[in-house]
Amino acid sequence: MKIKSFLSLCLLATASTVAADEFIKINTDQIGMVLRVKDNGRLYQSYLGKRLANDNDLQHLPQGNEVYLTHGMEDYFEPAIEVHHNDANPSLLLKHVSHEQKNIQPGVDETVITMQDDKYPVTVKLHYVSYAKENIIKTFTEISHQEKKPIQLERYASAMLHFSRPAYYLTEFSGDWIYEATMSTTPLNFGKKVLDTKLGARANMFTPPMFILSLDKESNETEGEVILGTLGWTGNFRFTFEVDNKKDLRVIAGINPYFSEYSLPKGETFRTPDFYFTYSDCGRGQASRNFHDWARKYQLKDGQEDRLTLLNNWEATYFDFDEDKLVELMGDAVKLGVDMFLLDDGWFGNKYERHSDTQGLGDWDETKHKLPHGIQKLVDEAAKRNIKFGIWIEPEMVSPKSELYEKHKDWVIHLPNRDEYYFRNQMVLDLSNPEVQDFVFGVVDGLMTKYPGIAYFKWDCNSPITNIYSPYLKDKQTHLYVDYVRGLYKVLDRIKAKYPKLPMMLCSGGSGRIDYEALKYFTEFWASDNTDPIQRLFIQYGYSFFYPAKSMSAHVTTWNKNASIKFRTDVAMMGKLGFDIKLSDMSSDDLTYCQGAVKNYKRLRPAIMEGDLYRLVSPYEGLRTHAANQFVCKDKDKAVVFAFDVYPGYGEKLLPVRLQGLDANKQYRVKEINMMPGQGSSLEGNDRVFSGDYLMKVGLNLFTGNKLYSRVVEITAE
C-alpha cells in the first residue's frame, strides 16, 4: 500500500507541474494562425496558413518559434523588441499573462494578448484584428511600463511572423522617381534581406512599404502559397527577412529603428503602426483581391463611394497662367465631360511669387496679378459650368525664399550650425511642433473657410527630411522621425473631423508616400509623375497588388506621343481617370474619342471601381510585349477587359487569353468599345454571345501583334 500511494503521489505531482498547452486561434474564413502558450509561460507561433478544420489537430502542431522575440536572451538572430531599463539592463523576457478575444463589429474580431517581463514592470500587448470575409489580419503592439524613470525603446516591431518551409521567394517593389513599384523576385537564403527607408516625409521614394512572400516555390496569379504584407505608416519603415541556421524564416515589420530610439515615460503607452497581411494558397490574384475588398470596406477614405474624374491644368500651363486662361480650361473640362477642374501648383505667393519651384512655398495667399479676384472667382466659374473645383497645396513644406521662412525659421527642420541642404529648393516644416500642426491645418481650414466651394485638394509632399534636427524637440532628437508622422496624423484627424466628406489626393513627387494609414484620410493617391502609358502599365500593375483601382489616380497626358490618345486613355481608365492635357492640341477625332471614353468609364465604374481585378497577362512576361487586365462586377453580370499590345515580336504567335472570374453558367455578349471614330472592331467574335465556361476555358484573341495597340472589351451577361 505504501508503494502504491507513493506512485500515486508522484503521478499527481507530475500532472500538476506539466500543464496542458493553451492554444490561441486567430482565424478568418480562409486563414488560420495558431499561437501556443507553453508551460514555461512563453508564447509561440505554431501555425500560419490555410485555416485548419479540426481543433483536435492543434495538439499535433510543432511548437514553432517565439511570437515576439526579445533582445538580450537566448535567441541569436534579429529580435522584434529591444528595451533598455533604468539600470541599463537591455534584456526582456516576455511571458503570457492573459488574452482576450472579442467581436468588435460584424465580421471583425480582435485578439489581445498581454505579455509581461518576469523581472521588470514592462507590459507588451500584442493585438491581432481579423477580418473574416476579406481574409486580412491586422497586427500592432502596445508597450508600457511602471519603472520609475523612462525606459528606452531601441526597436519596437509591429509584427513578427515565422515560417518553416523548404524555400522562400521575396518580391519587392523598389525603384526611383518616375520608375516606381518596379517588381523583382529573389530567393531568400541564409542571412538577412532588409527593405527600409530613411527619408522621413517622402519616405517611399525608393521603395513602398509592401512585399510579396512566396512559400516553397515562386507564385503566380493563380498558383502558389503567398503572403502579401504592408505597413500602415507614413514615414520610415523596415521589413527584415531573416533565414536562420535551421532554414526557418522570420519576417519583422515596423518603424525603422534608425535614429528613432524612443524614450517612454512611466504610465504612457507606445503604439506601433498597423501591419496588414493576407495569405492565399491559390496565388497572388486572390491575395490581391482580399486587400482590395478590405480596403474599400474598412480602410480607404470613402472607400465605397464614387470618385471624381477631372482635368488638371499642370501640363497645359505649368506656372504660366492667369485667371482667364484657367477659366478657358474649365471649358475644356466641360467638353471632356469630366466632373472637376483641378488647379495645380503656382497660384500663391506675392512677395515671393510662385513662378517656379524656387520660392513661395508656405505663403498660401493668391498671387494678385494672376488671380485678381481670388480663388472665389474660380469656384464660381466652375459652378456656372456645373463642374467642381479642386486645388493643389503642399502645406508641410517651405521655401527658404518665402515670408514663412523669414518669420518662422524655428518651425523648419534644420541643423543649427550647418549649411542648409535643399531638396527641390525646399525644406520640411517640423510637425512635431504643435504650432506647426496648427499652421498646416490652417492651410486647409483657411481655404475651406474662405472658399467653402472648394471640392478637392491635391496634397503634395516633394521633399524628404533633410538637415535632420528639430528646434522644438531639443534633447529628444531621436523622436523626430516618429513624432513628425504622429504630428501629420493629428493634422489629418482635425481635417477629417471638420471636413469629413472632403476628398483629397495623396501625392508626393509621384508615389513617395503611399500607405494604408495615410489612406484613411485620402481618397486616392498619385502613383507616379511618370504618365508615359507604357511605364504606367508597369507602375499600376505593381501597385494593383495592394491597392484597388479607385485609389490609384491615372491621368492622360502628352507623355509618349508615339502612343495614340486611345492607348494612353485606355491605360488611365484602369485607375481613377483624369486628364492633364490641352484640348487645343487634339484632333477632332481624338476629342470625340476622349468624350466617348469618359462616358464609357462612368458607365463601367461599378466594374472598375468596385469589382474584382484579374491580372490576365503581366507586362513583365516576355520582352514587354503584352498586358491585359480584367475587372468583374461582384454579381458577375458585367466585366471589362483592357488589353495592350506593347512591343510584340515580329511574327509572334498570338494565343487566346482565358478570362477569369465569370459565371460558367451564364451567357455573355462580347463587344469591343472605346473605338476611335470611324474605326470598326477587328476582334474575333465581336458582338457575339459566349458562355462564361467557354470564355474561361478557351478565351478570346485579344492581341493583334500591332505595336502600341489597345483594346477595351465589354462583357455583359444576357
TrEMBL record:
UniProt record, GO biological process: carbohydrate catabolic process
Binding site for substrate: 177, 344-345, 424, 458-462, 507, 529
First and last residue of the signal peptide: 1-20
EC nos: 3.2.1.22
Keywords for this protein: Glycosidase, Hydrolase, Signal
A Pfam family recorded for this sequence: Glyco_hydro_36N
Segments forming domain Glycosyl hydrolase family 36 C-terminal: 627-714
Residue positions of the active site: 460, 529
Domain Glycosyl hydrolase family 36 N-terminal stretches: 46-264
Alphabetized InterPro entries for the sequence: Aldolase_TIM, Alpga-gal_N_sf, Alpha-glycosidase_related, GH, Glyco_hydro_36, Glyco_hydro_36_C, Glyco_hydro_36_N, Glyco_hydro_b
GO function terms (MF aspect): alpha-galactosidase activity
SUPFAM superfamilies the record matches: (Trans)glycosidases (SSF51445)
Reactions catalysed: Hydrolysis of terminal, non-reducing alpha-D-galactose residues in alpha-D-galactosides, including galactose oligosaccharides, galactomannans and galactolipids
PANTHER family: ALPHA-GALACTOSIDASE C-RELATED, GLYCOSIDASE FAMILY 31
Sequence similarity: Belongs to the glycosyl hydrolase.
Protein name as annotated: Alpha-galactosidase
Source species of the chain: Paraprevotella xylaniphila YIT 11841
